[in-house]
């Protein structure tokens, strides 16, 4: 892989307070629901409302406030370090022009890795800390539609790539507008 490729997306997306509070409430409620279902399945009864409230508020604060703070402070360093170990499989005369950290949804799993734009195609290559690993190649000429999307209907960091054969790829990236512009340039050039 060429060392003169441009890296984008290591700047972590800032979440405003409204989004962080919504994320806290949503994750807290989902965690309470999950915990109460498990209690009912394994014990045959629900626990006290106070217990669920404490669990939900604690988990919501961690996921909605503490995790975004940690990612803002250390996320770029971690992504850059992991990204150095991810090397895509390239074809002859193919070179990486742009790269950056990304996730792609494969079913229910959000698979972490790196997104690469080469002179021939888009490549997503996962890091090894995933259940589903491997490389996904999307030729520019096969792309029918490129659009913005919200992750969890809250966060403006999603990109949907739809191919001519109807396959949709949902990516999560930082600096979404830059990615969309760079991918669009390559689609038009084909």
CATH class of the largest domain: Mainly Beta
Inertia-based shape: elongated
Assign a percent range to the helix content: 40-55%
Mean pLDDT: 85
Number of strands: 8
What is the CATH homologous superfamily assignment of the largest domain?
Pleckstrin-homology domain (PH domain)/Phosphotyrosine-binding domain (PTB)
Unreliable spans: none
Radius of gyration based on Cα positions: 19 Å
Largest sheet: 8 strands, mixed
Number of helices: 3
The proportion of residues in beta strands is 25-35%
- Distance from N terminus to C terminus (CA atoms, Å) equals 22 Å
By CATH, the architecture of the largest domain is named Roll
Strand pairing plus helix content: what structural class?
Answer: alpha+beta
The helix/strand order is EHHEEEEEEEH
Total discrete domains: 2
CATH topology title of the largest domain: PH-domain like
Secondary structure: elements and pairs:
Layout lengths: L5 E2 L9 H27 L5 H35 L12 E11 L2 E10 L2 E6 L8 E5 L3 E9 L3 E9 L4 E6 L2 H14 L1
Parallel strand pairs: 1-2
Antiparallel strand pairs: 2-3, 2-8, 3-4, 4-5, 6-7, 7-8
């Amino acid at each position: 892989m060429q060392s003169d490729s441009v890296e984008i997306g290591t700047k972590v997306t800032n979440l405003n307070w409204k989004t962080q509070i919504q994320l806290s409430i949503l994750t807290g409620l989902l965690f309470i629901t999950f915990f109460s279902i498990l209690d009912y399945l394994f014990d045959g009864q629900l626990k006290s409302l106070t217990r669920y409230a404490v669990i939900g508020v604690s988990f919501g604060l961690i996921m909605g406030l503490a995790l975004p703070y940690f990612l803002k402070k250390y996320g770029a360093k971690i992504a850059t370090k992991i990204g150095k170990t991810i090397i895509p499989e390239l074809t002859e005369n193919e070179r990486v022009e742009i790269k950056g950290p990304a996730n792609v949804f494969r079913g229910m799993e959000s698979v972490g890795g790196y997104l690469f734009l080469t002179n021939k195609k888009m490549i997503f290559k996962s890091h090894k800390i995933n259940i589903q690993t491997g490389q996904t190649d999307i030729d520019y000429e096969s792309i029918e539609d490129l659009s913005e999307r919200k992750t969890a209907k809250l966060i403006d960091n999603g990109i949907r790539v739809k191919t001519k054969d109807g396959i949709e790829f949902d990516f999560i990236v930082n600096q979404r507008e830059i990615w969309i512009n760079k991918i669009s340039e390559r689609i038009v050039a084909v």
